[in-house]
Structure formats: structure tokens, C-alpha cells
Amino acid sequence: MTTLTVIGKPDCHLCDVAQGVVEAVVADFPEDEVVVEHRSIVDDPALHAEWWEKIPVVLIDGRLHTYWRVSADRLSTALREAKQS
User: Fold this and answer.
1) pTM higher than 0.85 for the full model?
2) What values do phi and psi take at 79, rounded to 5?
3) Which has fewest Cβ within 10 Å: 21, 22, 73, 82?
4) CA distance 56 to 16
């Protein structure tokens, strides 16, 4: 199982767009293949310190995939590759 973590904050336009891309991409995978976690920099000072300038941030299995803008094609490819490793 692959864990995809989206780090953002409330009322963030880019975070909302990224969330839509993530939902669309994950919908193309079997239900139990990708787990999506949502984390907010508002709730976690360590996340805020590390990522506040780059939200939204997408991690795949704890490793940085992208920040600011999420490409559906690139995310889909990365999730397929994560499944194979």
C-alpha cells in the first residue's frame, strides 16, 4: 500500500486545486492501493516550519513528490512506480 500525504492549510486556493488533482488521480487506483493523509501546517508547528513556503506539498511514502502545483500525469506515474518498488 502506498501512502500519499497532502500538506496544506485551510483557505489555500492552491491546496484546494491540489486536493482535486489528488482525488482524481487516486480514484483511478484500486481502493486499497493508495491511502491519502491530509496534514495541516496550522495544526503542526514542525510541518509549518518545514513547509510553509511550499504548500501544497505532496509526499509519497514520506518522500517529497512535489509542491505548489500538482500534475495529474506526473502523480499517477509516481504512484504506479511506488507500487512497483
Assistant:
1) yes
2) -70, -40
3) 73
4) 9
